[in-house]
Amino acid sequence: MTPEEAYDKAINLGKRIPKLEPTISKNAQYSYYYAYYVIKDRWELAEPTIIQDAEYSYLYARDIIKGRWEKAEPIISKNAQYSYYYAQDVIKGKFILAEPVISKDAYYSYHYAKYVIKGRWELGEPAISQDAYSSYYYAKHVIKGRWELAELAISQNAGYSYGYAINVIKGKLPDFMHNALLFSNDEYEYAKKYVKFIE
Length: 199
Known about the structure:
Layout: H1 3-13, H2 21-24, H3 28-39, H4 47-50, H5 54-65, H6 73-76, H7 80-91, H8 99-102, H9 106-117, H10 125-128, H11 132-143, H12 151-154, H13 158-169, H14 175-182, H15 188-198
């Protein structure tokens, strides 16, 4: 019997099945589900399995422990996505151990700066500045002004270039961005809107 099949039996029965617990406890996903939906509390038998998986360690900390799970933090900290979620939802503040990993991911660096640090985060800026989406929103919501380091990345996307002109620069783009947007082969609608905006 697989952990999934054992878990399904418990769910269908609506209560713990102790003889199947060793089987369920071999899988992090179904161990978390069993703790959450069946036991509705910590399940120590399965914690050595759950702690090997960043996603389910984060979920277990958030939903079962309802607080930090320090033993799992070295595993969580190796994954940018779940490190960010853990910082935001569990720690509700900086997750120092995970910052070197988060800082390598543009998307989660931007979100970490905006929602956890609530301000500029220089460690994440090199990664953020390489991605048009993250750069635009970081400039708009975190820096709240022009961010020259990221303008090359933003200029690669007509939509974000247009947004940068309207919401960040609030006027004509720097020449190289201006030219890139006007002569973009894609999404010409943004170029037309931009020309109308700066007239």
